Structure formats: C-alpha cells, structure tokens
Amino acid sequence: MKALVTGFDPFGGEVVNPSLEAVRRLPARIGELIVVTQRLPAAFAASLPELYAAIEREDPDIVLCTGEAGSRTELSPERVAINVQDARIPDNEGAQPVDVKVAEDGPAAYFTTLPIKAAVLAMRQAGLPVAVSNSAGTFVCNHVFYGLMHYAATRKARFRGGFMHVPYLPEQAANHPKAPSMAVETIARGIEILLAVAAERSTDLVVAEGAVS
Amino acid sequence: MKALVTGFDPFGGEVVNPSLEAVRRLPARIGELIVVTQRLPAAFAASLPELYAAIEREDPDIVLCTGEAGSRTELSPERVAINVQDARIPDNEGAQPVDVKVAEDGPAAYFTTLPIKAAVLAMRQAGLPVAVSNSAGTFVCNHVFYGLMHYAATRKARFRGGFMHVPYLPEQAANHPKAPSMAVETIARGIEILLAVAAERSTDLVVAEGAVS
Amino acid sequence: MKALVTGFDPFGGEVVNPSLEAVRRLPARIGELIVVTQRLPAAFAASLPELYAAIEREDPDIVLCTGEAGSRTELSPERVAINVQDARIPDNEGAQPVDVKVAEDGPAAYFTTLPIKAAVLAMRQAGLPVAVSNSAGTFVCNHVFYGLMHYAATRKARFRGGFMHVPYLPEQAANHPKAPSMAVETIARGIEILLAVAAERSTDLVVAEGAVS
Amino acid sequence: MKALVTGFDPFGGEVVNPSLEAVRRLPARIGELIVVTQRLPAAFAASLPELYAAIEREDPDIVLCTGEAGSRTELSPERVAINVQDARIPDNEGAQPVDVKVAEDGPAAYFTTLPIKAAVLAMRQAGLPVAVSNSAGTFVCNHVFYGLMHYAATRKARFRGGFMHVPYLPEQAANHPKAPSMAVETIARGIEILLAVAAERSTDLVVAEGAVS
C-alpha cells in the first residue's frame, strides 16, 4: 500500500509551515505502507493541479493532506470539507476569492473517507493531544480537502482521503503572544499514527467524538 | 412577512438556555415583520417534528433557529449544516446517536439561505460581537439546522432558513470558570437585527468573513 | 458610610472604557452607603494625584478603583498590587515606564483590604461571572491600585481599598475577534454588589478562591 | 558557578509533572555552569524543608524552581511571589490552606532576582514561546517561590533565585480537551537558556515585557 501525504508552503507572513516541516520528517515506510510526500502551494489556483498531478503520478491507496491551524492546541483530523472559498486574507498568489464554490457542480460537502475516529483513539492512546474537527475553515486548506474528495468522487478514484490540521510550531508561537504550539516531532508522530491506522482498517470505529456546538 | 424563531430547552445540566431566553424577549413585530416563536426540545427525535409542525402552522417567510454554544464569545450565524449526528453527551431524552445521518437520503450538507454576511455587518455596526461560524457542531443544534434545510429542499418550501448559535448567559458562566457570556438583551438584539436584515434582503452581500482554519 | 469609586478614561485605541461607563451608571446610594465617583486619566503621572485629591475631598470609608481588562471573561476583584511599572504600550500622556517602582520607598506589594472573597460569593450567587485575580498587570491599573494602598498605609488613612478589573463592553469586542465581553449593566451590578458587601463587613470570609498557577 | 534546579512531583490527578520531567533531562553542565537538580514534593509543608536542605547541601549561585501551569501556552518566568497560600485543591499531603501567609513575618511579596527579561529575549530568539508572568498563583508553586526568596532575604544567602512555570506535556493535554502543551525537550531547552543567561549576567535588561491587565 502507498500513502501520499501533502504539506503546505508557508503563508500569512509565516516563514515556516508546520504541516510541511512535519511531512518532511516522515519515514519512507511505516510498516508495509510506502509513504510519498508532496509540497503544495498555499494558493487556491495552484494547489489542486499539483495535488492531482501527484495523485496521478503515485496512484496512492491513501491521500492525507495536512495544513496549519494557528489557533489550535490539538492535532485536528477533519470530518468534512465544504464547497466554498471565503478567504479572509490573500493567498500566496494574491487571490482572495469570497463566497465562490470550489467546484461549480459539486455537492455542498464531502466527508472524509479515512478512519479518523480510530486514528483519534490511537493518537490519544499514544499521548498526543487530538480531536476530531468539524470545520477545515474556508481558505486553501478546505479548498484542497474538498478538491481531493471531489476528485475521488468524480474520477471514481480508488484512494481513501482526508485532511488534518496541525498547530503552530513553537518557533511560530514565539512571535504570537498566547498562541499554542506543538513540536514538529509530535506532529510527525501524529501523522504516522493516522497513516498506520488508515493502512490497517478501511472502516471507522463508531465512537462519540462529536462537538456539542 | 412572517418569521418563525425557535429556541431550545435547557440541556447538559443547565437550568436555562440562552437561546430560549432571548427568543422569549423578541417583540411581536420588527417593522413590518411579524415574529412568532417556538420552543424546541433539546432532543434528536422530538425536535424536528415540533419544528415542522410550527412551520406548517405558521407558514413563515423566514425561519431562524437558535441554540446555545457555551464556549463562544460571539453571536455565531451558521454557514452550513452537515448530515451527521455525533452526540458527545445524551440529549434530553437520553439518546446519544453516533455517526448516524440526520436524513438517510440527504446530501452531505446544506448552506444557510439567510443573508448572514449582511447580518454580521449590521450586527457589528450596532456594536455586537459576531462572526460567521462554519460549524454548528454535531449535536441537536446541527440536527435541527440540517433538518430545517432538508425540509425546505425536499418540500420545496418557500421560506428561507438558518441557524445562529449564542453564548452562555452570565448566570450560566457564573458556574463555569473562565467561560465567556453575553447578556440576554444583547443576544435578543442580535436576533432582531438578523431578522430585520433577512426581511429586507433575499440575497447576501459578498464580503470576506471566512476562517483561515 | 461613603464609597469613592473610580473608572478610567479610554486608552489603547479604544473609544470607551467599560470601567468608566459602569461607574457612571452607579446609583448615588446603595442602601445607607453614599456613592461618589471619579474619572481617572489612563496615565501613570496624572492618575494618582487625581485619585488622592478625590480621597481628600470626599474622605471615603471605602475606595474601589476599577479598570478595563480586555481579555477577561469575568469580573476580577484583585488580590494584590505590586510595586512595579512595566508598560507594554504608552499611556495616554505618551509615557512608557519600564521596570520602575510605583513608590521608591514602598514595599514589594500590598494586599487589598476589601472583603473580596465575600464579594465574589455574593456576585456569583447573583449570577455574575466573577473570580479573584492575583495580578492587576503592570500598567496604569496596577499603578493606581498600588498607589491607593500605599496612600492608605503611609497616611494611615481610615478607608479600606481595592481594585476590580472588568471585561470589554460588547461594542469593544465587536472590533476584536474572539474577545469576550460583558454588558455595562452586568458590570455595574457587580460593582454595586462589591460595594454593598464592603459596606456590610470589614473582615473577609476565608473560602478557597485561589489559583493553582 | 553552580545552579540548583528543582521540579515538582505530579499532583492534581496527573501521573507526570512537566517540570520534573524537564529538569531530569538537563545536562550536568551548561558551559561552565554546574547543574544539580532536586525533586520537590507537591505539598505546602514538605516542599520548603527539602528545598532548603538542597540549598544548604549544594551552596548554589543560582536557584531556579520550576512547576506546572496546565492552562498556559508559554514558558512563564515569574516576576513576583506573594505571601499567601490559597489552595483551590488539596496538596499531595491533603492540606488545603486558605488565606494563610507563607511566612508570618514576611513582606507581602518578593521579586525574582534572576534576569528574566534577558532570558525571555534569549528564549524567544531561540524560537521558544515565552512571556513574563506576573502571578505564580496561590498554590504550592507560589509557596516555594516565596519561600525561596524569603530564605535568600532572611539568611542573607548569596544565591539569586527565581521560578518558571511550564505548560502541560502533550501526554497530559491528550486527556484535557483544548489544553495547550509543550514537548519536554522544548521545556528543557527553555530552562537551559534561562540558566545560561543567569550565569552570564547578574543584572537584568530593561525592556518592556509587562501586561496591560
């Protein structure tokens, strides 16, 4: 089995992106699972073509995209991608789409097809701060997540796919008073566990990890 | 024009629900808009039948459901409802569905059809803390919001619909250390402004109010 | 008995100060307690002379100074004032003292002489979000609190004194994403309760309201 | 030169204490500075005798005590210790003193004699999240910090002393939803930098690191 894992370029004034730094530290194999990685531009227009090219080149069984979530304390496997672009800040190419669909003909949302509940339990068991998230935002992260799942649905691709948001690195939080952070090794370990769980099982556990509001 | 506005019963150990307290303080008219209100049970099974009965009885032009979001600082008009029930705690009838759909045959999500961006600008202009939210959670609030929009879509109902989460009341926060809160009068004022904006305009403004993550 | 209550001018780019707005709404009497109020400039040099002049003019039994704490969710009666000025931003006269003492010959700190534990219990009983705070910061609020208690100690003044921080008003939080806030009426009610408790009792209750860290 | 560094036993239901875990990872030397470490019980009565015995045994030039602050995102060198015990929870020996002095004859507070501003700048430069804190709470951490400085003052000890709070470890935050955390290696690196700066300089930098409230 093969997993394709992506991380983003720095954006929003940052000089690093924790997702890319963590992805770069992944091993080439996790047990039997081959791991290949891909850097994605933090831009609406350029991100999906690069993701799709990597998918076509690698023909993966699992695709996990990762991105930065600066205000979060926890690793955040995402449950759902929504069909909207609503950019509070310009992306790395200067684009700032507002209330535009990711895919004109796409459904309102896609749910992840990775076993995120099982992965959350395994990560928590391993001592990692983690929680299922019910919103990937409305910027490039959600755009890539939606675009990934739309590709899977419309091309009848065989891979299972998902997205995980990760906190700032300590070196980023050093410049943002009160911002939480997580060491790159901790983030990378979380990604590895999620991948290992996804390689082991195709269906998810049914355990409560919802949000009251 | 007529608006139907709902609030929930207390749940989760609380003795009041800020949504219901605020809805009870709404005037019977806002300009030309007639306002009718309905209490909903905080329970998966019982909530939608009561909502649907009220819709059929009142035949409203606008339906706004409101609910409690204990950790929020702001009034939170919701952008999207998702087709999932994932209850971290039991509802008021003891049910705790996990990873069950709201509507077996429904789409993954519905977007609000109320002009929430225009309403956010008007509320902020009026000095209210407010932000568009991209997740209504996975408990009874999201369930009711999804069920509302599913009814509108499948019955080809003429109303426009949406949901707003509201913070704890001060008397609730008094028992939850560090919890933010909002006075019932402030919440009620926010609901009034949202209703007035929805009565005035059917299409929304295109202004950036998105979330990076 | 007579209480002198102060609030500050707006500072730090704000156009209102919740402490001053709340103090302006206080009644002239609370039971037998006469209430007089005083506006203080948000400036190190100018604040204490105005406070001391008001004390000498009014000869109060109780002095309560109040100030804005923008990130707090709760009314925060302060336990202790420390002998330091360390200004992160310039005050309203452009001064920005760093690591300078409030009183060259003063002790490291003063504890409040108001019954803040009893007041916290009474406010909580009345449904107000409230907690004892163990730091009034290092800006003009702490400066005034320290200066108040230093005056009491060195002049052997008969009044009992203290300080309470209060959250932003909603109209301020409207311009600060995610910032908590509190209605001016709620803040004013908290001040009234604190004053009433201070008028009733000179010694405090011994109940745990400490902070682990 | 020699530094004595202390960390606490786990308390409050935790099975590890980040301060102790980090202190255990310190090297025996940092440049010319010899580093010796000491575990302290998380108990009012037992902690200071053990600290004083270690001081007398080691005769250090620098004493840095460290402790856990579960809600913080940042390394927090403390500015001031106050003369109060106010325990929200029982300590590890079951004691829960409320509004009792640490030292009956001591002053209201002591300021640290370590160069915390210089250390904050050096840690931030090294990419660590850090901020000066103006309250060490009112539990055993503040008790030990106050007791340390009281010993220095009353015994005319030659050491300079201080305290730093540190966040939860990730494995602790895994069990506390939304709690921030920091890797033990990051915490240990922060302690090393603080010690190196304290060994290099006896006076502090005068730079603004205050809190508005």
UniProtKB/TrEMBL annotation, chains A, B, C, D:
PROSITE patterns, per database record: PYRASE_CYS (PS01334), PYRASE_GLU (PS01333)
Subcellular locations according to the entry: Cytoplasm
Biological-process GO terms, alphabetical: proteolysis
GO CC, one annotated term: cytosol
Record keyword Hydrolase present: yes
UniProt catalytic activity: Release of an N-terminal pyroglutamyl group from a polypeptide, the second amino acid generally not being Pro
Keyword terms: Cytoplasm, Hydrolase, Protease, Thiol protease
Gene3D superfamilies reported for this sequence: Peptidase C15, pyroglutamyl peptidase I-like
Superkingdom classification of source: Bacteria
Active site: E78, C141, H165
Broad class of enzyme this protein falls into: hydrolase
E.C. number: 3.4.19.3
One MF annotation (Gene Ontology) recorded for this entry: pyroglutamyl-peptidase activity
Described function: Removes 5-oxoproline from various penultimate amino acid residues except L-proline.
PANTHER family the record matches: PROTEASE FAMILY C15 PYROGLUTAMYL-PEPTIDASE I-RELATED, PYROGLUTAMYL-PEPTIDASE I
Family: Belongs to the peptidase C15 family.
Subunit structure: Homotetramer.
Protein name: Pyrrolidone-carboxylate peptidase
Organism: Limobrevibacterium gyesilva
Taxonomic lineage from the root: Bacteria, Pseudomonadati, Pseudomonadota, Alphaproteobacteria, Acetobacterales
GN (gene name): pcp
